[in-house]
Each structure stands twice: as C-alpha cells, then as structure tokens.
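Trying the structure run again after the queue cleared.
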Amino acid sequence: MGVFTFESEVVTAIPPAKMFKACILDGDKLIPKIVPKAFKSVEYIQGNGEPGSIKKITFGEGSQFNYMKEKVEAIDKENMVYSYSVIEGDALMNKLEKITYEIKLEPSPSGGSICKTTSKYYTIGEFEIKEEAIKAGKEKTLGIFKAVEAYLLENPDA
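Done. Tokens:
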C-alpha cells in the first residue's frame, strides 16, 4: 500500500465562516440543491454529522460514478477545519483503500477566504495514482465550490 498526498488552494470572495457553513455545515442539503447533476442525494447511514458519522452520497446523472460513502473524521467549527474519508463506492475504483480529505478555510487579505485542501490517497497493492486523475477530480470539486460561491453571491442571506 502506498499513500499519495496532494495539496490545493482555492480563493473565494466569500468570508470563511459563511463558506464553511454553506459547504460543510449545510452542504448535505445545499449542494444537491445547487448542483443536482453532481449530487442527487446525501443521507446519513450512521450518526448525524459528528465525527464517526457515515453518509452515503448518490451522484447525479452528470457523474461517472454512482455513489460513495464518507466517514466524518473530524469537524472543528471554531477553526473551520473538516476532515473526512471516502470509505466505499465506485469512486475508489477497487484500487484505493480510502481517500482522506482535510479542508481548512482561512481568511484571505481581500476579505474572502482561502480554502486549503489536503488529499491523501491510500492505494491497494502497487497501484500508483496518476496526477491527471487527481486533476480531473479536483476540477469537478472546484466546479461545485464555485457553484456554491455563485449561489452565496446571488443569495447573500443564505
């Protein structure tokens, strides 16, 4: 088994607390509403969002995958840090044991926020994840992030 780590940053005009609330705290309800082609539904199988909770995400018609299960590893509302692992689903391609993400939102000098993400891919056997595959996934995630940003700019009271 190998572990491949990738880091990325995205800047948004939305302040960190508002973006954290929309993407993390309210994301299970808000994201399927904003981008139904990406996420069809999110349902908790175990727990209700606290660490140890497991949720099943059913992807929309626009996705190449059917579903995935995520385990909430940690949530720190004060420091706006959220960590979760993809533990099951066709997104793991039978080549990955799991994928762990840590998302941290920090204030940016312009008044918006910087979203820092660390992704760790735990491979099965000798499989090596290609950077092209990571980039494709990150582009889809960025699209969802930007859709949430646009929604918040259009709906400032959301």
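The chain is about 25% helix and 40% strand. Worth checking whether this holds up in the mutant runs.
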